[in-house]
């Protein structure tokens, strides 16, 4: 598996990975626009079969936020997400972030297990954060990692 720091050249593959991971994936031009934003960076995981996963983060005011993280279903439970976070955290430190945080739907057990395994801890709850259309609204858990204390 290769991990590539995202540039415009990776956006097509990032969109392809994202589309596999999420029902409503982000388009290539959305990734291009986001990557031009202040403090935004990402990584693409790929192998000889093609794109496997993607992470996009933003650092602002000393905090890194995970904007999105997704792995193609066929590539899950092989350490792809763990590897993407493992490169994203030092990159956040390089941009002077002291903590990382993210929101995750309270029913997303795989993602909560992943973040907990990597040292993220529950830091809050945002009620009715995700609009799931006819299914209604879903709360989000806010999870946080102290980058000064983390070993990664
Ligand atoms: C959540 C997600 C990114 C995990 O990606 P992944 O590449 O399969 O995760 P990894 O293989 O790196 O898993 C690392 C650890 O996370 C935990 N984990 C990951 N998936 C899990 C699952 N389905 N059930 C329980 N624990 C899980 C485990 O501790 C795992 O370590 P282990 O395999 O040694 O037990 C992936 O399932 C995904 O893309 N889901 C859909 C999109 C999504 O929900 N993104 C997160 C939004 S906040």
How do the helices and strands line up, and which of them pair or pack?
Blueprint: E1 2-5, H1 11-21, H2 28-35, E2 40-47, E3 50-60, E4 63-71, H3 80-94, E5 99-105, H4 109-117, E6 121-131, E7 137-146
Parallel strand pairs: 4-5
Antiparallel strand pairs: 1-2, 2-3, 3-4, 5-7, 6-7
Helix pairs in contact: 1-2
The structure holds coenzyme A.
Shape descriptor: globular
Q: Mean of the pLDDT scores?
A: 95
Q: Any idea what the CATH superfamily is called?
A: Gcn5-related N-acetyltransferase (GNAT)
Decide which structural class fits the backbone: alpha+beta
What compounds sit in this structure? coenzyme A
C-alpha end-to-end distance: 19 Å
CATH architecture annotation: 3-Layer(aba) Sandwich
User: Strand sequence of the main sheet, in spatial order?
Assistant: 1-2-3-4-5-7-6
The count of strands amounts to: 7
CATH topology, what is it called? Aminopeptidase
Strand content: 35-45%
- Helical content (DSSP H or I, runs of 4+): 25-40%
CA radius of gyration is 15 Å
Main pleated-sheet profile: 7 strands, mixed
Q: Tally the structural domains.
A: 1
Number of helices: 4
CATH class: Alpha Beta
Low-pLDDT residue intervals, each spanning 5 or more residues:
none
Question: What order do the SSEs take from the amino end to the carboxyl end, as H and E?
Answer: EHHEEEHEHEE
């Amino acid at each position: 598996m290769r991990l590539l720091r995202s540039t415009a050249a990776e956006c097509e593959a990032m969109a392809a990975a994202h589309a596999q991971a999420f029902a409503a994936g982000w388009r290539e031009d959305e990734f291009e626009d986001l990557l031009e934003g202040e403090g935004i960076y990402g990584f693409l995981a790929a192998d000889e079969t093609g794109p496997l996963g993607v992470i996009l983060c933003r650092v602002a005011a000393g905090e890194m936020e995970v904007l999105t993280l997704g792995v193609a279903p066929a590539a899950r439970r092989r350490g792809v997400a763990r590897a993407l976070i493992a490169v994203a955290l030092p990159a956040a430190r390089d941009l002077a972030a002291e903590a990382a945080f993210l929101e995750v739907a309270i029913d997303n057990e795989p993602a909560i297990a992943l973040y907990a395994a990597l040292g993220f801890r529950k830091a809050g709850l945002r009620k009715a954060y995700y609009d799931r259309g006819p299914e209604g609204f879903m709360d989000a858990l806010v999870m946080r990692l102290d980058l000064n204390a983390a070993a990664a």
